[in-house]
Amino acid sequence: MRWRGRGRGLRWRIAALAAGTACLVAVVLGALVHLWTVEDIRSRGEARAFNAVYSAMDVYRRTGALSGGAALDPPGLPERLRGPDDGDRHTAYDDRVGAGPSAWAAQRTGGPGSPVLAVQVNLGPELSNVPRLDAAMAVAALLALAVAVPASVYGAGLLARRLGRVAETATRISAGDLDARTGPVAGRDEVAAIAATVDAMADSLARRLRGERQFTADVAHELRTPVGGLLAAADLLPEGETEDLIRARIRDLRGLVEDLLEISRLDAGAEQPVRVRVPLGEVVREAVARTGFGAEVSVRDAAPVETDPRRLERIVANLVVNAHRHGAGPVLVTVDGPTVEVRDHGPGFPAELLRDGPRRFRTGAAGRGAGHGLGLTIAVGQARLLGAELGFANAGDGGAGGGGAGAGGAVATLRLPG
């Protein structure tokens, strides 16, 4: 769902970029057309005035008559054309209000001090068409924008959907689904390259993880036989402190081997839950009693749940044992509907565990005791198999859910489905 929201944002950002680009192009193009049109009208008007002065001067010098709208020293003549130093023709543009913007051309009729013959060409009718041209350009820009925005939204939607497939695949892989693949993606662009890279990365990661899981399973399986032999050999030892110490270490080793085998089966997906309807409170009490550790069990709601009681007992037992080994008493176990909460009053979970979750062979802070770090890993795997949610937090001054390790202790919350 988060990616879909980002996909929509990407789509509209691309559409906004396309719309902004279209508007910028329309403004620049409209300004250039406007300036070019006005300059062209002025240039053509000055050329007409220049030619008109040439014809009028020829008639004036031959006959002394004024023709073609020519006048001698007209009152509206721009100042720069009133006294040219030479006898050449000169032009000027006059935008003063009156008859309208005009192009003037002037030439002195004789030597210095002689009258100036000038012709005025009114450019008002032609310049009056410029606003209509601007309006037409604006309408064309709006039409282009109306076509460009939906087209860009559609194109961005295609891109967002393709990227969404890749993102969803990466999310599934990060969540532990090693069989997730994007598959063939249309096109040969960067998105297709990213999809192929993600799939290749998933293949490589899956091969490595399967190899590691197989290695763990093989090692654990091979260790079962010598560990069994050690237990049998320990029975031959004479009773005493040495025999008890050896038996305790062998039992620890056997527990480690069994934990490794359980983790390998969970990783391989070889386990299947057997669901029955059981009273949650009674199952939790039995699981706590079998640990051999003392814990206060409080049942607020004894509603039955449908789950695998053996796996549920395994989860609760691991949580209680972890609370005693790495925390401090009293350990409180609370059953409320389909939720089981195990809380101790020790230093709390380390920040790394809260951030990344339990990791095998890592127990966190030294203050939380020693161990193999497999108990919580097995609990998380069994909870996932049951479709339950197992969360970890620290109890702050005001209750559970504190952000860091504190005097309130560690809180593990198991939420069963239904």
From TrEMBL:
Keywords per UniProt: Kinase, Membrane, Phosphoprotein, Transferase, Transmembrane, Transmembrane helix, Two-component regulatory system
Domain HAMP: 157-210
Region (Disordered): 70-91
Transmembrane annotation, as ranges: 12-36, 135-160
Residue ranges, compositional bias (Basic and acidic residues): 79-91
EC number(s) per entry: 2.7.13.3
GO molecular function ontology, one term from the record: phosphorelay sensor kinase activity
Superkingdom classification of source: Bacteria
GO CC annotation: plasma membrane
Location in or out of the cell: Cell membrane
Coiled-coil segments on the chain, per record: none
Major place of residence: membrane
First-tier enzyme category under EC: transferase
Protein's name according to its UniProt entry: histidine kinase
Taxonomic source organism: Kitasatospora cineracea
Lineage: Bacteria, Bacillati, Actinomycetota, Actinomycetes, Kitasatosporales
